Amino acid sequence: MSSSAAAPPQPSRRSELAAQDWKAFSAAWLGYAMDGFDFVLITLVLTEIAKDFHLSTVRAATLVSAAFVSRWFGGLAIGALGDRLGRRPAMVLSIALYAVGSVLCGFSWDYWSLFAFRMVVGLGMAGEYSASATYVIESWPHRLRNTASGMLLSGYPLGSVLAAKTYAWVVPHSSWRVLFWIGVLPVVVAVYLRRRLPEAAEWQRAEAAGETRLSATGLLFSGRRKSWNLPICAAAAVALLVVLRGQSTAVTLLLVALVTACFVALTVQFAGRLWPVVVALMVTVFCAFLYSWPLQSLLPTYLKTDLHYDPGQVSDALLYAGFGYAVGSVAVGWLGDRFGTRRGYVAMLVASLAFVYPVFVLGKGHAVALWVLLFLLVGTSSGASGVLPAYVSSHYPLRMRAAALGFSYNVGALGGAAAPVLGVKIAKPLGLGTSIAVLALALTAVVVLLVGFDVPARLQRMADARRPLPAPGGADGAVTGPAGTAAGPRSNPPTSEKV
Length: 499
What we know:
By secondary structure, the protein is mainly α. It is 75% helix and 1% strand. The longest helix has 31 residues, at 275-305.
């Protein structure tokens, strides 16, 4: 054969996708869009709820954070179900769970009942993220998985835009309760579509090969471990609730330390030798929420109080920001598949830094310019999270992927609960706009360093180097679990394909 013979042409990306791949993606995307729809409903009707239940603004705002209190457990439990029984049943359960929670919110009778129903929504949302992301990633061809991840996450901001428009159509003419009830209708369609889907191809191959899968809930809540892991979970939940009620700085730091210790203890048990990478990814996701959620949660307040925009102008701003988020999610997925997951993620984040200062230096007389800048800022900052599922899951073996992704992401998502509180505290001496800008700049830089240097994988390799593996149990060796038994097929987590 001649050395100059041309290599066989690569198949087009579109030709690699069968109709079943698009059907799988459509069902997952619709569910994730409804996730965005149901989650932001509470932010749209806080003033109406505060009036009906006689709540202060600060107390009403804790209803937004209520879903974060339960997300970490939902990510662990429903993710473990997805690892054990399959991605499809976990997807159906998660979307049904947050739909039921949303409907119950419409029937709430006081603050605590609504808080509890919001926690149900949080359980379902956490499972939705891990189940849908792993399902799509494992159903699509390997070299298109960043694209799949980015396209999937574009559903969330578009669902948020739909919620904002539905609010304008419904609430002025009826009640805030009706808004929650309407949220269940598209969910019924999503559940119907998901029930007819096949299982994820990669999960099916592992099942056929008889690969051992880790049951995180079985490991943590069976036998003797249950007697002390249940109190650990209860302590973490209570501490989070107390933090939300507002405490002194010293008490808050003490409670945060307690919550951190609880999560690390759970991680060490279910992840075994992989606990360093799981904890490091929790920190990465936490920082990602801290750079994006001050903008997402406080932008309407900033526009109303600092720039004195009317509700119509605020709605326009959120529309531009939401579409920017969606476009950015798709764009970063394409970049990730073409240049590598980490390169695409970091490039988008670095680009976002160019838009932070211009957004918050513009005054009221530059509305159109502000909308365009918000499109670009949110598209490059929040939109960069489109490859976050692919980046995080690439560090985990198949046997524990959904549980680890769900747990690490949703523990990290507590940054979303801390972000508005931290933003408001910093705003006292600096001003709200400056506060949002400072958090965006500082935390984006931190995430760029963590992802750019792939700190989670580096920490795992350092930990493995200090603890040599026992005799190999397979081609890649065996990971020794917390009980000293083989827990899976590999020790070092895979990193992104292109770095």
